[in-house]
Amino acid sequence: MSDFLQMGLTGLSLGLMYALIAIGLTLIFGVMRIIQYAHGEMFMLGAFALYYWHAELGLPYWAGVAFSAGLIFCLGAVLQVVLFKPLQGKNILYSLAVSLGLVLIISGSGQLLFGTTTKGIPSAVSGGMLIGGAYLSYERIVISAVSIGLIIALWAFLRHSVTGFAIRAVAEDPQTAALQGIRTDRIHWIAFGIGSAMAAIAGCMMGTLLSIVPTMGFLATIKAFMIVIMGGLGSVIGALVGGLILGMIDSVITTTISGDIAIILSFVVIFLILVFRPSGLFGQNWD
Amino acid sequence: MDKSDIIARPNRLVWGGLLALALVAPALVGFDLYMIHVGITISFNVALATSLWMIWSLGVISFAHAGFMGIGAYASALVLTKLGLSMWYGLWIGAAVSALFAMLIAVPLMRTRAVYFFMASWAVGEVIKRNFAYFKDFFGGWDGVFDIKPPVLDLGFLQIDFANRIAYYYLALFFVSLTVWIIYRMNASRTGTIWWAIHENELLAQHTGINVFRQKVVCFTIACTLVGVIGALYAHYQTYISPKSFDIWKSEFALVHLIVGGLTTVGGPVAGAISLTMVDEALRATGYFRTIFFGVVLIASVLLLPGGLETVPARIRKLFNRNSQK
User: Fold this and answer.
1) Domain-by-domain residue ranges, chain A?
2) Residues on chain B bordering chain A, Cβ-to-Cβ distance under 8 angstroms
3) Residue A27: exposed, middle, or buried by beta-carbon count in 10 A (0-12, 13-18, 19+)?
4) pTM
5) Does ipTM come in above 0.90?
6) How far apart are CA A65 and CA A45, in angstroms?
7) Which residue of A has its CA nearest to B112?
């Protein structure tokens, strides 16, 4: 019983972290209809920003998280304006190719600048507690709380703020939104920045929990895409549910059978979801 | 798209010139073994990109393409290592196995559309790769399959050992030219026109009486069969294959070749694969900077040359026309 509780708790915290990465991606797709394949690289850069802030310079942890989020927000906004804006309205393949180029550039220069050795970020909290025989570190609780908090904050931002309304309007119909006086270009870089910043924060969390290498972005991209496809592109709820499903598969199958089977199984699950619900669990039909 | 453009005479000259150049290329580089290796790599990439382009004529891009190449490669390799049959059998067995899997997968896969198709096909490709890695006893796991001997062609009076790189270059060139020719002809045929009709407007195509679903499955199967043959050739050239040889990056690079080359004619993927493989090899000496430069070249060509390399002749023509009018 306690085994299952342990697996469930691990799966939950893992799933929330995955959801955090995936929500950024789904926001970017929903607003701009581009495939941001370098999303995992934002995750990686976020983690390294915190590493240099907290582990190398010894500055406070939470300020570092904010610094990393702000930095990656700016980076995302600049990338959107410089690289993705000219591709607006073109076939989705072009954005895929450009972001693929970004992956090569960022991970390549990451290996040059940061070195290829594995690094760790010292965590902000220590200790843990036992719940019904399952061990839960405070670190994981804090990380899960941060993830939940951010997801709720984003949800509230999209629901209730003026900019949030504008973002949803642009996602719904860019032309009509522009006719209402919304500056779609501005919304585009804001959404890109927010999405990237969420990935960066997830990177900070992940970097504290596990270890960081410059090549870790690719795996994050894969996970994020798996989640987003499962949940439906452009759907925030879908990303949350997809993240939890994937986290559970990862945690339960890896513990009970093996890591290889967990990956194969998650791809089979995605394939089946897409065959029976061709637009994902909560997705719309994009053409 | 303009069909009359494809069969125009200048294009035939270009194709013929390209083939002639490819035929004399080993002599031009002085039979340098490394350059011939580059030539063989270019051939494989051309075939991969062109067959991916064939799927693109339906309006979708399959990320499972490297996976199907892997199926062909593994089938051919295992036929050799387990049954002792040479590549001359392995090629066709690889193609047949790849075709069989492609057809079985295409039936559910073709239910998905647009951007979801990328993702579903990507899942397929990843599952294929992971299965090679997981079944260690049969496929050799992550270590892969070793000792895949290149074949010997015995014509009675003449024996050609394809362990020789120059001989293998011509073998690869033959199969790649065949692949490109088949795709070129299919694209110019009525079937090709039907595929482009589906590409342009699926609903409309359906209403003119095209069995869209069947056409999609047929197109996907043919493309995967062709790439299965190339996979078998690849396996016997490298003499070693592992699941890593057929991961998502291979499909992605084929897509990149396609985009940089251009998406509307067969010339696009051919031009893209040739030029980018050369760029990639030329950057090999720069070590870590190789991937960075490749990324820069990729982004620059997408942003600065929209439409790809295939639009270059038209651009030059336009430039000259403007000058002559002055």
Assistant:
1) 8-103+134-214
2) 61, 108-109, 111-116, 118-120, 122-124, 126-127, 130-131, 133-134, 252, 255-256, 259-260, 263, 288-292, 294-299, 302-303, 306
3) buried
4) 0.85
5) no
6) 12
7) A278
